Amino acid sequence: MRYTQITSASNPKIKEALDIKNKRSKYKHTAFIIEGPHLVEMALASGNKISTAFFTDSFRAKKDGQKILRQLSIKSNKNNPPSPPRKFPHPPFAKGGQGGIKEGVPGGFSGEIFEVTEQIMRKLADTEAPQGIIATASYAEKNLEEIRFKSVPLIVAVDGVQEPGNLGTIIRTSDAAGADAVIILKGTCDVFMQKTIRATAGSIFNIPIIYTGTDKFLDWLKSNGIRLLATALDSGKSIFDTGLKKPAAFVFGNEAHGVSSEIKRKADLLLKIPIYGKAESLNVSASVAVCLYETLRQRKTT
């Protein structure tokens, strides 16, 4: 199959993708860039909306690349009726032009598939060694009332986490542990930064992620009978001495300062993870893993 080809960074589609990458888009809170074949495949499998896909000729030459491009094309054909090839106003590969075309494909999955040069791919990518495919995607905003509990409620909330890699790992760990949702409270870094997306390893497509205010979150917990368990850096009860079989929402705070004073005041219980060596504390994403898997251990123990 042949695809529309773009050879200039001045092309409107490239500019739009760069705006999303640099958070200048009007959709900056829900639109984001996914990079690499693994994330593109996971986005397709999860049903999330991919707007536009960009790939290089070297990516298409790979067996896995051909497979993913076929998947994109199938989605494209299912979601949109056939349309004639689109042509940009400049001839193919014209100097200063916006890219030529080989042949269009139907607009798809709600957008289109473009072949781009290696130089453009490097411009779009956030990594030093791009994997040959990038897509723009959007995340359907959800609210607290849409959360569906798998069994005994288990919620993870982040309150001011600043490092994108930490946030992405928290989302990945929450997914692995079977948590029902990840709640993003005020002061937390952007979920849809490329570094965060990569750190989720695709889990961003598997678990509900919800932005909400602290007051609304606390009211929702109360109405659903869920305890608020806040992690504390220097006080609280050891998690290993705490019963965790009842519905619970763990709140994890800023890497340096912990949870906010409001969360501390309103928590049903403050918890800490004992430190037995000389380290001052655990990384916040490691703390999430300890808390969630201790909860699972207790809940699976009869």
What does this structure look like?
By secondary structure, the protein is an alpha/beta fold. It has two domains: 4-138, 60s Ribosomal Protein L30, Chain: A (2-Layer Sandwich); 144-300, Alpha/beta knot (3-Layer(aba) Sandwich), CATH 3.40.1280. Helix content is 33%, strand content 19%. The protein contains ten helices and twelve strands. The protein has helices spanning 12-21, 37-46, 57-60, 63-79, 118-124, 164-176, 194-200, 214-223, 261-266, 284-300, and strands spanning 4-6, 31-35, 49-55, 112-116, 133-138, 154-159, 181-184, 209-211, 227-231, 237-238, 248-253, 269-272. The strands form two sheets. Strands 8-7-6-11-9-12-10 form a seven-stranded parallel sheet. α6 links the parallel β6 (154-159) and β7 (181-184). The radius of gyration is 22 Å and the shape is elongated. It starts with a strand and ends with a helix. The relative contact order is 0.14. Residues 80-108 have low confidence and may be disordered.
